[in-house]
Every structure is written in structure tokens, then in C-alpha cells.
Amino acid sequence: MRSAILKxxxxxxxxxxxxxxxxxATLPDTFxxxxxxxxxxxxxxxxxxxxxxxxxxxxxxxxxLRTGKGAVFxxxxxxPSLGLKTDxxxxxxxxxxxxxxxRVIDTRTGAVIRSYALATAPTFVNDVILTRDAAWFxxxxxxxxxxxxxxxxxxxxxxxxxIPLTGAxxxxxxxxxxxxxxxxxxxxxxIVQSNTGKLFEVDPATGVTTEIDxxxxxxxxxxxxxxxxxxxxxxQNRLNTVAVIKLGRDGSSGMVVDRxxxxxxxxxxxxxxxxxxxxxxxxxxxxxxxxxxxYDVVAIRPGR
Length: 304
Fold this sequence. Notes:
five-stranded mixed β-sheet; four-stranded antiparallel β-sheet
């Protein structure tokens, strides 16, 4: 009798699975953001939840990667929200662009937990990375990193620390330090300089920079960075390309092993991963923004 019941249950389960629509188990490869949103940054997780910042209003949009549906859950200050990163404590760290600030947002409520005034004009606080003990922000208009030292259990500091960038990097006209990640050995930071296409290693204690040897390759229009082990993905926004770089263990050298393109790219700015997919928001810098300009997010599979 028990065997018969088990067999019946298994058959019922099989029928149910066969009858399920295929799309129920498939994440959308493209999904829309609100008209006129002007997306820039992306952060994913924990789980299949993505956050997008508006460079227009600073609003934060939250979407479910399983459906592509979402809504604005945190109202912006009227200045940009650019680079984004989430931690495991229900917080979203936001780079404030021309606003010269950093914000920390509660991912449950959308409320601003704390805001930091980092700089006054000229400034362009562009991207952020979280390490074990700090949040680090780049400034594309000034040769400096901003550090938020994190205390016990991730406690936020009262103020940020300015660390001037010296050494190999030379700021020039245009967008300078942009995307930022930790090196594979976690002992240094890596930043890309958009206007020169150069990649630099940064000593987090001193701010001294050293150019990373890419064997003559350049990352023109380099924007958001994503590190997966020793594989670095560098978005080249106006080139509609993602460069794939194999880094040395300490991050001092690397080799461009691939460049990913997709017909759906329309000036993607940065990249985040979920499962085997990379997600990129299309900023559409070459399209004049209007209140109704359509924007979207595309997912690619780099292994294919």
C-alpha cells in the first residue's frame, strides 16, 4: 500500500512539473525600468533582488530578477545615485555623483540610515566597493578615495576618511577614476580610469597607485567593474562591450582574454552577477533623456 501511495504521489508530481510553463523557471533576459529613469548603477542580492540608481533624481528602483517586475522603493534627493553595493546587513551603499555624497539606505524600508558629505564641486562620486572593513568610493573629478571605515558588526562611522591618490595615476580632462573592486588577494584595490583606459592597483593604506600591466591593452570608456575569483569584468560603456580580464593573483598584471558584446547593449554602465548571468543596465548616454525615454536591463551568460 505504501509503495502504491508513493508511486501515485511521484506520478502526480511529474504531471505537475510537465504541466508547468517553461517561463516559470526561466529568468527574463531583458526587463524594463521606468520611463525616464536614467539608470546608472546596479547591485544584486541577497537573493534574486536587484537595485538600480537614477542619475537624474537619485531614486532607487528595486526589481525581482525572477519576474523583472519592480518599483521605486527609495526616493532620491534630486542628485544622482550612481554606484551601488549591498551588504549582508540589509544596507545599500550609494555613490552620489555630483551631489558629492554617499548614502546608506535600509533595503527593507528605503529610508536613509546615514548620509555623508564627501566633497564639494568639482566632484563626481562615481562608484563604491565594500571590503571586509570599509566602504570605498571613487571620485572621477578629484584624485581621492573616500573611505567609510566599518566598525564591529559593520557599525557605520561618524564621518568619511579622504585618501589622496598618488603615484602612477594622473587625472586629466574627462572621467577619471570610475569602477572599483578589491584585488584577488584582497590586499589592494583596483580602479579603472575611463578617459585613459588604464587599470590601476591602489594601496588602501597610502593611496599610492601602480598601473596594472595589461600587455598593451586598454579599457577605453572603462566604467563598472566586477571581480569573480581572478576574472575581472570591465564594462566599456560607449563601446557596448564588456572586457574579460584574467588577473594575476596579486592583481598587478592581467590579460584581456575576451570581449563580450550583445545587440541589446545600449551604452551599459556597470555589471552585477546572479547565478551564471551578468546583468547590465542600459544607460543610453547617446540618447537625449526625456520623461518618457525607455530604459531596460539585459542579462548575458559569459560562458556561452
